[in-house]
Amino acid sequence: MMGRELESDRDTASAIPGKEKPSRLARHRREEARFRKRLAFSMSAILVVAFCVGSLLDLPVLNFPRGAWRWLRERVASSGGNEGGETESYLFQVHPQSGKVLGDTVSVLLGVTGNREAGDGEDLLYLALFTFHLDRSELEVYVIPEMLMAYDASGKPVRLRESLRGEKGEDLLRSTVGNLSGTVIDYLVLCDFREAVLVAQSLGLPPVLLEEEAHFLDPLTGERQSVLAGQRIGDADRLLYHLLATDRPDYWDGYFQRVERLRGYLPRALQALSEAEGGEALESLLGHGGRTVIVPGNGSASRDAAYVASMLKAATRAAGQEIPCRGVPRVEVLNGCGVPELGRKVGWRLADLGIPLGDTGRNAKTVVNGEEVNDFSHQESLIICRSMDPKVKAFARYLGVQLSVREVREEPGAGEEVVVIAGRDLST
Hints:
Order of helices and strands: HHHEEEEEHEHEEEEHHHEHEEHEEEEHEE
Structural class: alpha/beta
Shape: globular
C-alpha cells in the first residue's frame, strides 16, 4: 500500500507543470558533486590542523604559515613610510628568527674586532651601544670601555676585550653590557676592523681637520703614522684611527677622547649620510662575503647586510638633532673608616677591574654643629649615585656587584656621578 502511494506521489510530481523528473544521469552528477564538496572540506580541515600543529611545534615542513606571516611583516617593515605623521618602520624591527615585531626602542651593540695574534682569537677594539628611539627618530650613543670585567659561566673574570675568545662569548658580551647599562641588547653587530675601513670608505664619510699633530697607531699591526697639524684626514683608515683615539698612549685618556670625538663628529657624519643615502652601498659591500656578523642573525650574509643597512637608515633619520653621546662615569673613592690609604687601595682595585677613576685621596665628610668634619663611621661600604641617568644608575649597581657592596644609594648632587665610600669591609 505504501509503495503504491509513493509511486502515485512521483507520478503526481512528474505531472506538475514546470517541474521535470530528474534523470538517472542528473542524479548521479549531483551525488558526485556532493562527494567532491565533502572531500574538499575534509582535506581543507586536515591541512588547517596540520599547519597549526606545524606552527606550534615549529616543524620546518609544516611551518609554512608562520614563515609566510614573517615574510609579510618583513616586507611591511622594509617598505614602511612616514606619510601622514605615522612612525616609519625598519627591517631590523622584525626579529630575524622569531618574526616578532620589536618596539619603538631598539638597542644595538656595535663591536669592532681585530685578530691581533694568530691563534689568540678575536679581540674587541671598540664597543658602543646605539639606542634607537624610532618613534621620535632619535639616537643616543653609550661608548663602553672594553677593559671592563665580565664573568663567564665558571665565574672566571674575563675582560670584555677578550670575551669573544671563550665559549658563548657573544652571549657573555651582550649580558654584561646589558647589565652595566641597564639596557636590553636587541642586536650585537661585530665588524672586523679592516672591513670597518672599507665600510667607511664606501660611505664617503666627511673628513676631519686636525688641530694638532697626531701620531696614530694601527691597532692591528702597531705601525705608526704621523699627521701634521692643520691637515685634513679623508682616508678611511686614518679617520678611524682618529675616532678611536689611537694617538693617545694612555688608555683612559684615549677612551674619553673617543667619546668627545664621536660626540663632535657623529652629527656631521649622519647629516652627510642622510644626503647621500649610503645604505645601498653598505648592503652591497656586506652582502658579498663580508665578515660582519649580526646576532641574532638571519642565516645569510645578504639578509644580515639588509638588517645592518636598515640600522644605518634609522640612524640617519636623527640627522640635524642633538645626539646624546657619553661614556661610563669616573668613580671617586672616599675613605669612610680612617684606615690609612684605604681610598687609594680601593682605587687600585677598581683600576684592575677596568673602572675609570676620579679622586681617591679624600675622606668622607659629615656636618657636626655646622662644621664639616671627617666621617670615619662606615663599617660597611656604600655607593652613592649622584646622577638620574638610567645608564649611570645601572653602572653604579654593576660597580656594587664588582666590589660586593650591597647598598647603592641615589643622592643627586654635584661632583663625580658615582662615589664609593670605602668602609672597613673593604680594608681586608
